[in-house]
Amino acid sequence: MLRLTGLAKRYDRSDPALAGVDLTVPDGEVVALIGPSGAGKSTLIRCINRLVEPTSGSVVLDGVDIAGLSASGLRAARRRMGMIFQEYALIERLTVMENVLSGRLGYVGFWASWFRRFPPEDVRRAFDILDRVGLAGFENKRADALSGGQRQRVGIARAVMQAPALLLVDEPTASLDPRTSRQIMQLIVDLCAERGLAAIVNIHDVALARHFAHRIVGLRKGAVVFDGPPQALTAEALTAIYGAGDWAAATDDA
Amino acid sequence: MTPLWRRRTTRTQWLVWIGWLLGALAFAQSWHTIAETTEWDFVWDAPTQAADMLGRMWPPRWGYAPAILKPLRDTIDIATLGTLLALLLATPVAFLAARNTSPHAVLLRPIALAIIAVSRSINTLIWALLLVTIVGPGVLAGILSVALHSIGFFGKLLYEAIEEIDPTQTEAIAATGASRAQVLIYGVVPQVLPTFAGVSVYRWDINIRESAVLGIVGAGGIGLQLNASVSQLAWPQVTLILMAILGAVAVSEFVSAKVRAAII
């Protein structure tokens, strides 16, 4: 279980990016985080694994307060949180297998990672996960030789390879076509169900969020302005999150 | 009516014209100064002199070839070992100098940048002059002077390559719980490896040309024979040496082009 309490972040001399967010995500729940650009969605998920240092507040994952950890404690905590990125963030010149195995870097030593000598158990799991995400046989392809959808599958495999308790997913579909977007969201949701993972998914596409998430959280100017099931995301709620607009198309889907 | 549009205002247009006028005046003045300080008798004589020298240089003295084989090999050795040594020393310097990998931006980064600046601003030939007095004449002085000058070249190009990497790739590696050193070797090194290899063979290619003249100051290699042949007015030998250097440079360019094509 993940619990955020009063999580705040202020970059230099500007309005706060996060203004005290309280949020609890139980195991196995997929939360879609929606909101306009600049609402603090990316900052929120980066404060959870401290790629961005929060200014104040606490982040507790399964009883461990991440905000208070030392550098080595933070590395151990990050192993429990898989991250998936908008632009995939794969190491482009490395093979698919090397990218997937990089999910184990928190568990192996320096020389093992230098020579890519990962434990046989990790390699076996990597093959299983590649098979699960639909990339069996791709292990020796270079990441830059893959299509966008395939790259995102590698990104998902890398995150799952960590054996995490939580997935932090930052705009997973923003660079993908509509059909691939749905396949990728389906894959993320299925993996969460299979492995009991909680997930926070930043997403711009409200229809996708409604379709795939168990719960929707709306962020505006760094504060939570909506928190509820997809059915409760009415035109009024969308106006509260994004400002006034014509929401007919976005609410039809429900 | 057609709306009026001009690229520049009248005022800027005038300033541009005045700029051109001043440039032309400066050019005329320089031309005048050069003409006054030139011994024109020598200049008009130049074609005759050049033809005369070419006549004395040709044909090359092929019998001299066995005598330059070892110096030629020394020259290539100096370039190769100097390049390798420089690469070895410059890689840590580059990681210290790059903003995104430097462990200490206030203290270590300026030191690394200073090493790069000093190394770059002293020419290989000057390093050789210094090193011949320190370690004595010979190949070692040549290797060290090539290395000392190349550290700056490598350091600068490599640290710029490190600063231009895609930060989200390293962010993703850090997010897995990897240590700083692991982020470096798994997230940074693969991104800069092509630049490292390309810059290395390019510098090796330059160093072959540079080490060909190091012998002039006693730092080993074919430059010694070149200098001696020029002072003895043994022009057919000079021709042969120049041809040997040309051959070595052509081979090195071919090799470095092949390597660069292979690693991208």
SSE order and pairing:
The complex is a heterodimer of chains A (254) and B (264).
Chain A: E1 2-9, E2 18-25, E3 30-34, H1 41-48, E4 56-61, E5 64-65, H2 71-78, E6 81-84, H3 96-101, H4 110-114, H5 120-132, H6 148-161, E7 166-170, H7 178-195, E8 198-202, H8 206-212, E9 215-220, E10 223-228, H9 235-242, H10 248-252
Parallel strand pairs in A: 3-8, 3-9, 6-7, 7-8
Antiparallel strand pairs in A: 1-2, 1-4, 4-5, 9-10
Chain B: H1 10-36, H2 40-57, H3 65-97, H4 108-121, H5 124-135, H6 139-163, H7 167-175, H8 180-214, H9 223-231, H10 235-263
- Oligomeric form of this entry? heterodimer
Helix content of chain A: 25-40%
Biggest sheet statistics of chain B: none
Query: Strand count, sense and closure of the main sheet of chain A?
Result: 6 strands, mixed
Summarize the structure.
The complex is a heterodimer of chains A (254) and B (264). In chain A, 36% of the residues lie in helices and 22% in strands. With 254 residues, chain A is α/β, with parallel strands linked by helices.
What does it look like?
- The complex is a heterodimer of chains A (about 250) and B (about 260).
- Chain A has 10 helices and 10 strands.
- Chain A has about 250 residues and is of the alpha/beta class.
- Chain A has a domain at about 1-80 and about 205-255: Rossmann fold.
- In chain A, strands 6-7-8-3-9-10 form a 6-stranded mixed β-sheet, with helices on both faces. In chain A, strands 2-1-4-5 form a 4-stranded antiparallel β-sheet.
- Chain B has a single domain, classed as Orthogonal Bundle (MetI-like fold), CATH 1.10.3720.
- In chain B, helix 3 runs antiparallel to helix 8.
- The mean pLDDT of chain B is about 90.
- The interface of A and B includes residues 77, 89, 92 and 94 of A.
